[in-house]
Each structure stands twice: as C-alpha cells, then as structure tokens.
C-alpha cells in the first residue's frame, strides 16, 4: 500500500544550540553540523536566528554560518527572524549574497505571558509587528514559516486555551506563512492533549498547513509525533541528538530526537522524505548526534542513539 510521505524539519542547529550555556559554540562547529545534516539527507533545516545576541547569545554569528555552509541544491537553510530589525540584517546579507537562504521563520505564541518573556510584547502586538515582516520577506521571494509556541501548556500561565492556538495559527497563515508549526515548547504535552489541540486547530486550518514541534521534557514527544501523524500532520520538527530547549521555557529539554522519529517510523506506513536514497540516513543521524553532543561535552540525548551506536 502507498506510504504517507513525512517531512522532517531539522532544528538542531537552531533550537538545539540556542539554549547551550557556557562557551559560545564556534561558527565552524555549526557549519560542520549543518553540512553533515544535509549530507545525511536532511532537506529542511534551520541554520540559526537573526535575533538579538543580548537575548540569545548562541545565535550571534548566524550570518557567518550562512556564509560558511555548503549550499546543497534542494536543501532549505532557513533562519528565525523575530522582527523588522532581524529582517533588515538578513536583507543586508542577501544584498551581497542572494542565495544564502530562501526561507525565514517567524514566531509568536498562544499566550501573552510567553510572548512577554520571549518577545517582550503581547500576542496581539507580536502579530501586528509580524505582518510587515512576513510581507517584506515574501516580496523579496522568501518562503515564510510560522511558529506558535506553548500550544499545550505555558510555563508562565499554565493550561493553554486551544482556541487561541487556532486563532494565532490562522493569523500566521493569513499573513502568508506557507506552514505553521505548533510547538509544545514545554514538552509536557500528552498524546490525548495533542489530539484535542489539533482537532480544535483543524476547525479553521487545513491540516496540510500544519507541522508538529514537540519538546521531549516528559518523554512523550515520540508518542506526540505519532499522534500528530495519525491526525494528518505530515511535517515534524526534530533535533539531531535531541538537542535543544528554549531559553524562555525554564526547565524544558530538547526537541524530539531526529533519530528517534526516524526509528519509530521505519517500516511503518509513513516514509520520511530526504535526499539520502530518498530518505534520511538513521545511522548517519545517530553519528552526528554523538559527534555534536560530544563537542558539547555530553552523551547523545537520543534514546535510539545509544543502542545503535553500540552495535
Ligand atoms: P526588545 O528588547 O523589546 O527589542 O527585544 P528592542 O527593539 O527594544 O531592541 C533592544 C536592543 O536589541 C536594541 O539594541 C536593538 O537594536 C537590538 P541596543 O540599542 O540595546 O544596543 N535588537 C536586535 N539585535 C539583533 N537582531 C535583532 C534585534 N532586534 C532588536 N533582531 C526582541 C525584542 C525580539 C529583539 C527580543 O525579544 C529577541 O531577540 N527575542 C528572541 C527570543 C528568541 O530567540 N527565543 C528563542 C526562539 S523561539 C523558540 O525557541 C520557540 C520555537 O522553538 C518553537 C517552540 O518550541 O515553541 C521556535
Ligand atoms: Mg522549540
């Protein structure tokens, strides 16, 4: 029977590294990480952020990262842009090297409390500021992806009203986002909550426009990925080695590990798309997960990374 094609957005070089405490990760390490991921078959990846380095020091140097990486054909190397200032900085770079990226991600959240912490404004204010950013990016020929954070629980205001998730996702699509990624930023969502949230969002938004972004703090992320797939979502954000966390989501750990998603879907009715023999190489991703984790002074946080490496 025909398989359902699943797209992976590899966020390890952005979500994965943005929260690292301690020494600033060198540009060369980020460049090598991204090059390895693309060679392993990843075709959608986040290369960094044009955010304030005072707010998120590890994402300083994203311009140098974009200049340093190999740009493989068919691979989207996207960057997070929080505001007009970030877009201006990106455009200044693209003025001299127009092919460095073809995609930005803009981000907001389902609660005012999270947006205050992450973007220093309310949800309504953030949406208002993002409209001209999304427009200018599209006018320049860039694809725009949107994020809604804290779709299940908010670290500051608790339980989230799924109606707000639906409204915010709809607004991001209305301003031209080709896709909206729904983030369980805290990583404590349970499969039945993901299902309820998606059912609410799908009342107003076609499921083809949605992606799932699950942090794995409570160990439910793979189950949440499967739940999202069963509800028709076909794009999943994941992070090599399970790296990551949001600096404004205290205690939250990394995204679902890319290795763990690949492993869970092997042989199923879902086929992960990629450029390594039509998919993404599981063993390659396991190796990259260990390589980057050891660079950061720890073991790979991926569950399947441990037994597969031992083989
Ligand atoms: P603000 O302080 O309100 O901004 O922060 P401002 O406009 O008042 O500017 C303050 C200073 O920052 C000024 O510099 C600006 O020039 C500078 P100063 O005059 O003090 O020297 N500035 C910038 N510098 C570089 N790049 C910029 C930029 N903008 C202003 N783009 C701001 C507002 C949006 C800048 C700040 O709140 C910010 O950078 N926030 C980003 C937070 C962030 O990156 N969070 C992590 C990503 S989101 C995430 O991880 C969730 C996700 O994974 C999904 C999920 O899991 O849910 C996507
Ligand atoms: Mg995240």
TrEMBL record:
Which UniProt keywords are given for this protein, alphabetically ordered?
Lyase, Metal-binding
CDD domains registered for this protein in UniProt: DRE_TIM_HMGL (cd07938)
Q: Where does the record place the Pyruvate carboxyltransferase domain?
A: 6-286
Query: Is Ribonucleoprotein a UniProt keyword of this protein?
Result: no
Q: In which pathway does it act?
A: Metabolic intermediate metabolism; (S)-3-hydroxy-3-methylglutaryl-CoA degradation; acetoacetate from (S)-3-hydroxy-3-methylglutaryl-CoA: step 1/1
Q: What is its EC number?
A: 4.1.3.4
* Listed Gene3D superfamilies: Aldolase class I
Q: Which Pfam families match?
A: HMGL-like (PF00682)
Catalyzed reaction equations? (3S)-3-hydroxy-3-methylglutaryl-CoA = acetoacetate + acetyl-CoA
| InterPro entries for this protein | Aldolase_TIM, HMGL, PYR_CT
Q: Which GO terms describe its biological process?
A: ketone body biosynthetic process; L-leucine catabolic process
Metal-binding among keywords: yes
GO molecular function, one example? hydroxymethylglutaryl-CoA lyase activity
Q: Say which family it is in.
A: Belongs to the HMG-CoA lyase family.
The entry's protein name is hydroxymethylglutaryl-CoA lyase
UniProt organism field: Laccaria bicolor (strain S238N-H82 / ATCC MYA-4686) (Bicoloured deceiver)
């Amino acid at each position: 029977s025909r398989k359902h094609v699943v797209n992976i957005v590899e966020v390890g070089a952005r979500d994965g590294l943005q929260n690292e405490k301690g020494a600033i990760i060198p540009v060369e390490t980020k460049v090598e990480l991204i090059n390895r991921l693309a060679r392993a078959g990843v075709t959608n990846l986040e290369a960094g952020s044009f955010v304030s380095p005072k707010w998120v020091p590890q994402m300083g140097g994203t311009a140098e990262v974009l200049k340093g990486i190999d740009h493989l054909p068919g691979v989207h190397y996207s960057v997070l842009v929080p505001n007009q200032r970030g877009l201006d900085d990106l455009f200044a770079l693209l003025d001299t090297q127009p092919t460095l990226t073809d995609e930005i991600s803009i981000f907001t959240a389902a609660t005012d409390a999270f947006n205050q912490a992450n973007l220093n404004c309310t949800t309504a204010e953030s949406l208002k500021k993002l409209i001209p950013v999304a427009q200018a990016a599209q006018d320049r020929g860039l694809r725009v992806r949107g994020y809604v954070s804290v779709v299940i629980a908010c670290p500051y205001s608790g339980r989230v009203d799924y109606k707000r998730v639906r409204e915010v996702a709809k607004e991001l699509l209305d301003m031209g986002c080709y896709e909206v990624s729904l983030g369980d930023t805290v990583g404590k969502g349970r499969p039945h909550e993901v299902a309820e949230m998606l059912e609410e969002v799908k009342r107003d938004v076609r499921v083809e426009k949605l992606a799932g972004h699950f942090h794995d703090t409570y160990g439910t992320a793979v189950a949440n990925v499967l739940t999202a797939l069963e509800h028709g979502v076909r794009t999943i954000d994941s992070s090599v080695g399970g790296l990551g966390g949001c600096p404004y989501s205290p205690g939250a750990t990394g995204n679902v590990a890319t290795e763990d998603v690949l492993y869970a879907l092997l042989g199923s009715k879902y086929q992960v798309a990629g450029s390594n023999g039509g998919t993404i190489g599981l063993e390659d991703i396991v190796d990259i997960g260990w390589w980057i984790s050891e660079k950061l002074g720890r073991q790979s946080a991926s569950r399947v990374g441990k037994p597969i490496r031992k083989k």
